[in-house]
Amino acid sequence: GEALKRAGREHPHDIRRVHVVGAGTMGADIAMWAASKGFVVTLQDQKPEILARAMARASAFCKKRLKDPRQVQETMDRLMPDLAGHGLRRAELVIEAIVEKIEPKQALFRMIEERAPATALFATNTSSIPLEVLAQGLRDPTRLVGLHFFNPVEKMQLVEIVRGEQSAEAALDRARAWTAAIDRLPLDVKSSPGFLVNRILMPYLLEAVILVEEGVAPEEVDRAAVEFGMPMGPIELSDTVGLDICLSVAEMLSGPLHIDVPARLRELVEQGRLGKKSGEGFYRYT
Ligand code: NAD
C-alpha cells in the first residue's frame, strides 16, 4: 500500500477523467474501482441493461466496502453511466473492455480516435489480442498501451502494462503512473502471446477442463487446487472469468502456445452457459 502511494507521488500523472467502454465483468469493475480512487469516470456500453446492472453492482460494492455514507455518495457521484459516450470528448484516459474479438475492438478504437481529445491515452484490457493488431486502424498508434486488469479487480493487485511495438515511452509512463495512483501494481510486459499471466494461467485452466472432459468431477478438480493453496479452483475460476472469454482467449493463444481448445468449453459456450455472468457454466449459480 505505502509503496504504491509513494510510486503515485513520484510519478505524477495528468489524468483526471477516465472513460471506460464495455460495462461487463471487467469494465464495470475497473470503472467502479477508478471512481472509488477519486477519478471521474464515464462508463459506456451498447446495452442499457448492462449499464444499469453495472451501476447497481458498483453501488452495492461501495456500500459494503466504504463505511462512511458520504464516501459512498461521492464515489457514486463520480461514476456516470454514459450510453452515448459523451465522456469520450473530455477523457484523458480511455480504457477499452469490450468483447475479446479483433474487428469490434479495431472499429471501436477508430471511433475513439475520432472523438477523444488528441492528448488522451488509449488503453485496452485485451487478454490475448496483440497490441499491434488493435493499433492497426489508429492514425497515431503510439498512444495505445495495454492495461490488463485481473478478475476480480478489487482483489487482484496486479495490472500488466503491455508494451506494443509502437507504444510510446510517454504513454507507458502515464499508464504506469495512473495504475499506481489507483493503488494497483503495474508490471511491464511485452505484447507477446498471453503476456505473462495468461501464458501460465490459460494452459492451467484448459488442462483442468480437459480433466473434467475425462470424467473427473469439477468439484474434485477445484478441491485439489484449493488444498494445494489456490484461492479458487481452476473450474470455478473459468466460470468467474466467463467461459466465452476463456474460449476467445484459448483460441487466440492455441497456435502460439501450442494448446488444444477443449471441446467441452466450446459446447458450454454454444449452450449459452457462460459461467457466473449467465447463471450457469460448469456450476450453477442462483
Ligand atoms: P463481458 O462479456 O463481460 O463484457 C463485454 C461488454 O462489452 C458487454 O457488456 C457488451 O455489451 C459490451 N460491448 C461489446 N461491444 C461493444 C461496443 N462496440 N461498444 C460498447 N460496448 C460494447 O467481457 P469481460 O469479461 O468484461 O471482458 C472484456 C475484456 O477484458 C476482454 O478483452 C477480455 O479479454 C478482457 N479481460 C477479461 C477478464 C475476465 O476475467 N473476464 C480478465 C482480464 C481481461
TrEMBL record:
<protein>
    <recommendedName>
        <fullName>enoyl-CoA hydratase</fullName>
    </recommendedName>
</protein>
<feature type="domain" description="3-hydroxyacyl-CoA dehydrogenase C-terminal">
    <location>
        <begin position="194"/>
        <end position="285"/>
    </location>
</feature>
<comment type="similarity">
    <text>In the N-terminal section; belongs to the enoyl-CoA hydratase/isomerase family.</text>
</comment>
<feature type="domain" description="3-hydroxyacyl-CoA dehydrogenase NAD binding">
    <location>
        <begin position="18"/>
        <end position="190"/>
    </location>
</feature>
<comment type="similarity">
    <text>In the central section; belongs to the 3-hydroxyacyl-CoA dehydrogenase family.</text>
</comment>
